[in-house]
Amino acid sequence: MYVAVKQLTVKVKELLIIAVNLITNINKLMTDKLDCQILQELQEGIDLKRRPFDGLAQKLQISCAQLLQRIDKLTAEGIIRRIGGSFDSQSSSCDIRWI
């Protein structure tokens, strides 16, 4: 009987570890409403200004520091992979080649 209880205890511990890992992964995937707004705004594009995130922070009614912290967090979690430019090669006189 002691062996059966010990085995059951080990199984319960294993299940708890699995549950904690699942909750951790779910929390990483979940973002709050502000994170979703930030992602939406970044997807739509940011202004080409000297301080491009100031306008976005003002629009979201948060400080620029808070916005950048959120972007850093979303990047660390792998939700944002990169932020880059989108160019119109047709209207540019530059020879832009895609690799």
Which key phrases capture this entry?
mainly alpha; Arc Repressor Mutant, subunit A; 4 helices; 0% strand; elongated
Cα-to-Cα separation, first versus last residue: 67 Å
What structural category do the secondary elements indicate? Answer: mainly alpha
Largest sheet: none
Overall pLDDT metric:
81
Low-pLDDT windows of residues: none
For the record, the CATH class of the largest domain is Mainly Alpha
Number of helices: 4
The helix-strand sequence is HHHH
Summarize the structure.
The protein is mainly α. It has helices at residues 2-29, 33-44, 52-60, 64-76. The protein contains four helices and no strands.
Molecular structure report:
The protein has two domains: 1-30; 31-81, Arc Repressor Mutant, subunit A, CATH 1.10.10. Helices cover 63% and strands 0% of the residues. The mean pLDDT is 81. With 99 residues, it is mostly helical. The chain has four helices and no strands. 4% of the residues are buried. It is elongated and about 80 Å long.
Q: Topology of this protein?
A:
Layout: H1 2-29, H2 33-44, H3 52-60, H4 64-76
